C-alpha cells in the first residue's frame, strides 16, 4: 500500500538534462500562448498550479523538507467554436518542491497529472488522452484532506489500495489513479445527478489477465448533501467499489466513505471505512479523520487531526498529524507543518 508514495530520483546529469528540456518546453508554451490570447477573444489559455512545501516527519521516521500535498503546474485552454460547442485542452505536471524534480522522475511521464484534448457542449464534456479515472477524479470530495496529504489523509492510505488503474503503465510500475490512452466523459447535471465515465483503449501489459480498464461514478450534489457511488475495474481484473456521502450544516461538514478493493489473481482484499469532519472558524479550518481497514485478516486503524489557516484566498498555512496502527507493523506517527499557494 505504500507504492503510491515511492519516490525515485534520476542521476544528477539526467535530472539536469530533463529539467532543461522541461524549461524549454514551458518557454515555448508561453510564447505560443501569448499571441493566441491577444489575437482571439474567443480563445483563452490559462496557466495555473498548486505549490506546496513543508517540514514533516513521515511514517518511516525520516525528517524531511518537501511536498506534503501535491504540487502541480498546468496549462489549459478553451476555444469557443460557436453553437454552444467548445474545444478544450489541459496539460498538467506534478513535481517535488523540495528539489524541483518531476514527481517520480524516470518512472512516470512528464505530463503525469493530465494530458487531454476534448469538446464540451450541451451533451457534456468529452476528453481524450491521459487523466484521472472516473472514480479517482471524484472521490477526493469525501476526505477532509481531499485525498491529498501524506501525513493526515486516511484516504491516501486506505482507499483503493489494491486496485491500481493499471499495474504496469508507468514503465512497468503501477499507476494509481490515471488512465493512459483513455476516453473520459462527464454528463450534464440533471436534478443534482452527474454521471462520469472513463475507459482505456490500451490493453494492460501486466502479467496475467490481458484486458482494458474502465470506471464509472454517479455523483449527486444539491444543497447541503453530496453523495457518490463508483465502480472501477483495471485491465488485470482487479476491482474497487466505492460509496461515499457528505453533509454540510453551517460552517461544519461531516463525511463518510466505504471502499472494497480486491485483487483478481491472488484474492487479496481490502475493505475500509473512513469518517471525516471539518469546521471553519473565521480563517481557520479544523479537520479530523478516522479510518479502519480490514486487509485480508488484519485490522488497521488511522486517526488524524489538522488545521488550516487561510492567509488569503490563495495562500494557506497548515499543520497535520496522523497516527497509524497496523497489526503487522505496530504503531507509527507522522506530523508536519507546511504552506500552500494556488494560482
SSE topology:
Elements: H1 12-39, E1 43-57, E2 63-66, E3 71-82, E4 85-95, E5 114-121, E6 124-132, H2 154-158, E7 166-170, E8 173-175, E9 178-186, E10 193-200, E11 214-222, E12 225-233, E13 239-249, E14 252-262, E15 269-281, E16 284-295, E17 298-310, E18 315-326, E19 330-342
Antiparallel strand pairs: 1-2, 1-3, 1-19, 3-4, 4-5, 5-6, 6-9, 7-8, 9-10, 10-11, 11-12, 12-13, 13-14, 14-15, 15-16, 16-17, 17-18, 18-19
Structural features, described:
The protein is mainly β. It has a domain of 210 residues: Porin, CATH 2.40.160.10. Helices cover 10% and strands 55% of the residues. It contains two helices and 19 strands. Strands 1-3-4-5-6-9-10-11-12-13-14-15-16-17-18-19 form a 16-stranded antiparallel β-barrel. A two-stranded antiparallel sheet has the order 7-8. The longest helix has 28 residues. The protein is globular. The N terminus is likely disordered.
Nutshell version of this structure?
With about 350 residues, the chain is mainly beta. The chain is built from 2 helices and 19 strands.
Q: Quickly count the helices.
A: 2
**Architecture per CATH nomenclature, i.e. the level-2 architecture of the domain at 71-280:** Beta Barrel
- Order of helical and strand elements: HEEEEEEHEEEEEEEEEEEEE
The CATH topology assignment of the domain at 71-280 is: Porin
Q: What are the key terms here?
A:
mainly beta; Porin; disordered N terminus; 16-stranded antiparallel barrel; globular
Amino acid at each position: 500500500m505504500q507504492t503510491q508514495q515511492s519516490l525515485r530520483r534520476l542521476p544528477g546529469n539526467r535530472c539536469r538534462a530533463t529539467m532543461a528540456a522541461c524549461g524549454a518546453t514551458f518557454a515555448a508554451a508561453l510564447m505560443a500562448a501569448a499571441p493566441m490570447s491577444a489575437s482571439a477573444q474567443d480563445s483563452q489559455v490559462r496557466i495555473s498550479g498548486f505549490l506546496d512545501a513543508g517540514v514533516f516527519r513521515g511514517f518511516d521516521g525520516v525528517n524531511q523538507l518537501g511536498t506534503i500535498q501535491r504540487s502541480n503546474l498546468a496549462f489549459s485552454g478553451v476555444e469557443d467554436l460557436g453553437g454552444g460547442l467548445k474545444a478544450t485542452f489541459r496539460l498538467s505536471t506534478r513535481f517535488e518542491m523540495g528539489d524541483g524534480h518531476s514527481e517520480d522522475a524516470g518512472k512516470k511521464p512528464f505530463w503525469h497529472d493530465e494530458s487531454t484534448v476534448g469538446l464540451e457542449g450541451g451533451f457534456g464534456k468529452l476528453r481524450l488522452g491521459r487523466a484521472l479515472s472516473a472514480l479517482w477524479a471524484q472521490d477526493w470530495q469525501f476526505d477532509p484532506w481531499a485525498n491529498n496529504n501524506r501525513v493526515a489523509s486516511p484516504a491516501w492510505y486506505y482507499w483503493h489500495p489494491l486496485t491500481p488503474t493499471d499495474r504496469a503503465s508507468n514503465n512497468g510500475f503501477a499507476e494509481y489513479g490515471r488512465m493512459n490512452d483513455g476516453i473520459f466523459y462527464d454528463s450534464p447535471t440533471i436534478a443534482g445527478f452527474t454521471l462520469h465515465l472513463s475507459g482505456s483503449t490500451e490493453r494492460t501489459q501486466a502479467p496475467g489477465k490481458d484486458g482494458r480498464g474502465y470506471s464509472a461514478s454517479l455523483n449527486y450534489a444539491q444543497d447541503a448533501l453530496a453523495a457518490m457511488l463508483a465502480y472501477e475495474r483495471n485491465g488485470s481484473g482487479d476491482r474497487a467499489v466505492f460509496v461515499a456521502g457528505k453533509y454540510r450544516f453551517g460552517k461544519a461538514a461531516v463525511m463518510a466513505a466505504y471502499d472494497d478493493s480486491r485483487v483478481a489473481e491472488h484474492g487479496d482484499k481490502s475493505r475500509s471505512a473512513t469518517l471525516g469532519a471539518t469546521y471553519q472558524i473565521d480563517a481557520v479550518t479544523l479537520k479530523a479523520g478516522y479510518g479502519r481497514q480490514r486487509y485480508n485478516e488484519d485490522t488497521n486503524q488511522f486517526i488524524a487531526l489538522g488545521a488550516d489557516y487561510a492567509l488569503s484566498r490563495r495562500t494557506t498555512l497548515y499543520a497535520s498529524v496522523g497516527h497509524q496502527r497496523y497489526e503487522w507493523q505496530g504503531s507509527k506517527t507522522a506530523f508536519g507543518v507546511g504552506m500552500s499557494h494556488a494560482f
